[in-house]
Amino acid sequence: MILFAGIVAFALAAGLTPLVRRWALRRQVVDNASLAPERKIHPLPIPLGGGLAIFLAFTLVSWTVALLTPDLFGGFFLPKYLVGITVAGGILIVGGYLDDRYHFTARRQIVFPILAALGVIACGIGVTYITNPFGGTLDLSHPSWQLFTLGGQPYRIILFADLFAFLWLLATTYTTKILDGLDGLVAGVTTIGGIIIAVLSMTKEVTQPETALLAVILAGAAAGFLVWNWHPAKIFLGEGGSTYTGFMLGTLAIIAGGKIATALLILGIPALDVAWAILRRLTGKRKATQADRGHLHFRLLDAGLTVRQAVLLLYTVTAVFGSVTLVTRGEQKVYALIALALVMVILATSVILAYKKNSPRSTMPTRRKE
Questions:
Q1: Is 323 within a domain?
Q2: How many domains does the chain have?
Q3: Which of 32, 60, 140, 201 could form a disulfide with 212 if both were Cys (CB 3.0 to 4.6 A apart)?
Q4: d(Cα 230, Cα 240) in Å, to the nearest integer?
Q5: How far is the C-alpha of 29 from the C-alpha of 12, rounded, in Å?
């Protein structure tokens, strides 16, 4: 059932994407190079909004499985969780469409990720404890206040658990948003991340086939979109898709038993890149949200790699370090995270040296605003 659901999601996303593309073109929801030619890597307007295909494929397949078989709601996974995920995803996709069309400021953009994070938390998805890799756990389940009961299920506020989940979801949402700069990069990373979370969910340590099912559906939907998003891309994720994919990876990491280290290893390179970008901008007395061409994936292009080579390199790093989480336990994951940081430093240093050696390209900046 799990593999079949992923295949159906792949086919559905691959079939829906050209329909979404035509819909975006009719409404002129496009990434137009003429608006800022010095910041674009595509000479012609490319339709946005491809995240809608991923969202629809994931939602249709997951709800079909939930309603027709006992495979999703048969264990710990409650119906209200899927309701929360669906509503939150819809908020991001609608908000992303509005941003793609009307070009919101960063202050307005963040409203939708905030509402999405609050939506899943309100439906009971949260981190009640964090495992100490060196032994023991950190309990986040207190203090808590029950608000009401609906359908036999309690709804409560758990202060520290909800706050941690909120900040975590915002972090993963913005990681893929900022990562979305090269054709196929975010869709491929999402596919790899979904597969790794699915495999981890089937291990004896976790034993959550429900989470594995959702992760495979997400991976299949992202891979189906990737058919059209591979370089040269026929359609981009858009604001909604770039935030939805990171949000879903972060949510699945929580559902899989708070596998924060796993998600960090999957999204490690872009997360470190985001942290470095924010630090670089603040020390340069610029706004943290001000876009520039200093991200690692663009530096790879400046150093002489093609778009496909840069994307495949980042795929490889994601797959290698994401897979490490399948064979490591406890403090070993901390060492893996340290190793990932060192790889980031080595990779960035190599890119800078290669960039200085080669003649720099005059314009190879970000494709979209952040």
A1: no
A2: 1
A3: 201
A4: 18
A5: 22
> How many Å apart are CA 85 and CA 266, to the nearest integer?
21
Radius of gyration of the chain measured on its C-alpha atoms: 20
pLDDT of residue 76: 78
**Residue 346 burial (10 A CB sphere; 0-12, 13-18, 19+):** exposed
- Note the Cα 226 to chain centre separation in Å: 14
Tell me what pLDDT residue 370 has. Answer: 44
What is the predicted pLDDT for the residue at 361? 47
Q: Is the separation of the CB atoms in 329 and 262 below 8 Å?
A: no
Determine the straight-line distance between the first and last CA of the chain, rounded to whole angstroms. Answer: 38
- Confidence (pLDDT) at 366: 46
Q: What is the pLDDT of residue 62?
A: 96
Domain presence at residue 85: yes
C-beta of residue 40 within 8 angstroms of C-beta of residue 174: no
Q: What is the pLDDT of residue 44?
A: 80
Lookup: tokens for 144:
């808590």
Beta strands in the chain (DSSP E): 30-31, 46-47, 129-131, 137-139, 144-150, 153-158
> In 3-state terms, what secondary structure has residue 139?
strand
Closest C-alpha to 237, from 189, 192, 280? 189
Cβ neighbours around 335 below 10 Å, total: 13
Please give the Cα distance from 360 to 206 (Å, whole number): 48
Q: Which domain holds residue 215?
A: 2-268
Tokens of 104: 């919101």
* Amino acid letter, residue 88: A
Structure tokens at 362: 């005059």
Neighbouring residues of 253: CB distance < 8 A, sequence distance ≥ 6: 172, 197, 259, 260, 262, 263
Cβ-based neighbours of 356, under 8 Å, separated by 6 or more: none
> Which residues of the chain are under the pLDDT cut of 50?
36-39, 360-370
The CA distance from 284 to 303, in Å, is 23
Name residue 337's amino acid: L
In a domain, 205, yes or no: yes
